[in-house]
Amino acid sequence: MAREPKEFSIRPGRREDATAAARLWMQSAAEHARYDPIYATSANAERIMRRFLADLASSDHSFLFVAEKDGRLIGFVSGELREGSPTFNSRTWASVDDVFVAPEHRSKGAGRALLEEVKRWARRKGAAGISLQVAAANRRGREFYRRLGFREISVYEVLELGEGTGTSP
């Protein structure tokens, strides 16, 4: 049985992709804010992400890969190489900061293809593996990563002390 051809392509992100990728990031942030208000964005979040993603595209220690369909970005993954704690056996990780596929393009292989590209990049860089964080309430994302072979090794917890001031109420 022949597989259907992919409706998208994966390629390294370029500086000029930063605007479209930042817009996708804002969609991701809105989804995350529905999981928990701690993910609410600042007023200038899109501008900051645009600059950040443009810088990632031109760095040797970071990555930005994009999924494109008909000349339009439909998803992206970004991150960087990070060293593990010096108190444990030394390991370098390709740490995924963000991965997002527009809702209307999900379940068509773009997310898997983006992470496969990260895997290839990580191998070229000599990384021991890929790490990422996922919102606890993001059941779909957690199941997706589990199917790709990721395993949970840590739980990230927060204790908020006040209204964004860092002080107790």
Show the helix and strand layout.
Elements (H helix, E strand, L loop, with lengths): L8 E4 L5 H18 L9 H13 L4 E8 L2 E12 L8 E10 L8 H16 L3 E4 L6 H9 L22
Parallel strand pairs: 4-5
Antiparallel strand pairs: 1-2, 2-3, 3-4
Q: In summary, what is this structure?
A:
Helices cover 33% and strands 22% of the residues.
The stretches of 5 or more residues where confidence is low (pLDDT under 50) are: none
* Cα radius of gyration in angstroms: 17 Å
Q: Main beta sheet, described?
A: 5 strands, mixed
Q: Into which percent range does the helicity of residues fall?
A: 25-40%
Which shape, going by the Cα principal axes? Answer: globular
The largest beta-sheet arranges its strands as 1-2-3-4-5
The helix count comes to 4
Order of helices and strands: EHHEEEHEH
What does this structure look like?
33% of the residues lie in helices and 22% in strands. The chain has helices at residues 18-35, 45-57, 110-125, 139-147, and strands spanning 9-12, 62-69, 72-83, 92-101, 129-132. Strands 1-2-3-4-5 form a five-stranded mixed β-sheet. Helix 1 packs across helix 2. The longest helix has 18 residues, at 18-35. The radius of gyration is 17 Å and the shape is globular.
